[in-house]
Amino acid sequence: MTLLKKHLALLGFLMAAATAAPAFAQQVIRLSTTTSTENSGLLQYLLPKFEAKTNSKVNVISVGTGKALELAKNGDVDVTLVHARASEDKFVAEGHGVNRHDVMYNDFIIVGPENDPAGIKGSKDVLGAMKKIVDSKSKFISRGDNSGTDQMEKGYWKQVGSQPQGPAYVSAGLGMGEVLNMAAELRAYTLTDRATYIAYRAKTGLQIAVEGDPKMFNPYGIIAVNPQKHKEANYKGAMQLVEWITSPEGQGLIGSFKVEGQQVFFPSYKGEK
Questions:
Q1: Alpha carbons 182 and 70: distance in angstroms, whole number
Q2: What is the full DSSP assignment across 136-198?
Q3: What tens digit of pLDDT does each residue of 128-170 get?
Q4: Bridge partners, residue 207, by sequence
Q5: Do 199 and 40 contact (CB within 8 A), yes or no?
Q6: Cys-Cys link to 190, which of 141, 160, 181, 257 (CB 3.0-4.6 A)?
Q7: Contact 64, 148 (CB under 8 A)
Q8: What is the pTM of this model?
Q9: What pLDDT digit, counting tens, does each position of 105-114 carry?
Q10: Vertex 232 angle, CA 227 and 234, to 5°
Q11: 39: closest CA among 21, 63, 55?
């Protein structure tokens, strides 16, 4: 082959590669989600499998549910995975999101120091236990960040009719893992999702005080950002993630994820619209 032919052959190869590259370019999907899905290790377990299957890169922003929905509302992400059903329904009703689906559930628990100053250990009555925390003037650490956990906690205090006052109540404005560490340091109670608690249990030494009340049910939903409001949103990628995480494969992986040998999320998708 002559030198000219070699150059032409090389040029043809490079042109073909350049033309083909966009078809195989990795897409980016922006996901806002709660600290519980990040702190528990669930996303690190799930997303690499989705990314490999779809040639995608999922950029995760892990914050409280309120902030996660705000990011979606502003078009700063393509899809959101959160756990505050009333806020999710409002988000969709206002036209910010579409195609909401149930993904999974776990539960909230109240955890606290081993000496249990409020005398609530073993209770299955979350409102009664929180009333005892108030009456005993025991210290309580609140997320204070408008997360799903924070919204649930505030709803409980409203039903109780009172909440800890003064130094007995600390509004941290932090994620769940940091709040658990703070509760351990201050020998205080806090409301947490079970998954994050288990991930931090050995580090904090906090004990489960209240569990098993139906009021502590904690469902998660996934919502695509409305492409009619945000033209730049990667709606196709968002729906790929929505469809995958609610598929038998995604649901099966959620069910098989464990922390310290314990299942912490339970798949809940049943094909609703």
A1: 26
A2: TT--EEE--S--HHHHHHHHHHHHHT----GGGEEE----HHHHHHHHHHHT-EEEEEHHHHH
A3: 999 999 999 999 999 999 999 999 999 999 999 999 999 999 9
A4: 112
A5: yes
A6: 141
A7: yes
A8: 0.82
A9: 999 999 999 9
A10: 70
A11: 63
For residue 192 the two structure tokens come to 């947490």
CA angle 178, 48, 268 (to 5 degrees): 75
User: Which residues are CB-neighbours of 176 under 8 A, at least 6 positions away?
Assistant: 35, 36, 39, 143, 147, 149, 192, 193, 196
Residues sharing a CB contact under 8 Å with residue 9, sequence separation 6 or more, in sequence order: 1
Tell me what pLDDT residue 273 has.
39
CA distance 34 to 63: 5
d(CA 73, CA 18): 36
Q: How many CB atoms lie within 10 A of CB 256?
A: 11
Longest dimension (CA), the chain: 93
Q: What is the rounded CA–CA span in Å between residue 74 and residue 218?
A: 26
Instruction: Round the average pLDDT of the chain to a whole number and report it.
Output: 91
Q: How distant is the alpha carbon of residue 3 from its chain centre?
A: 59
- pLDDT for residue 39: 86
Judge contact between 238 and 246, C-beta under 8 A.
Answer: no
Cα angle, residue 219 at apex, residues 176 and 65 outer, rounded to 5°: 45
- Both tokens of residue 89? 């329904």
Whether 12 shows a pLDDT value over 80: the answer reads no
Report d(CA 153, CA 109) in Å as an integer. Answer: 11
Using DSSP, state whether 199 is helix, strand or coil.
helix
- The pLDDT of residue 74 is above 60: yes
In angstroms, the first-to-last Cα distance of the chain is 62
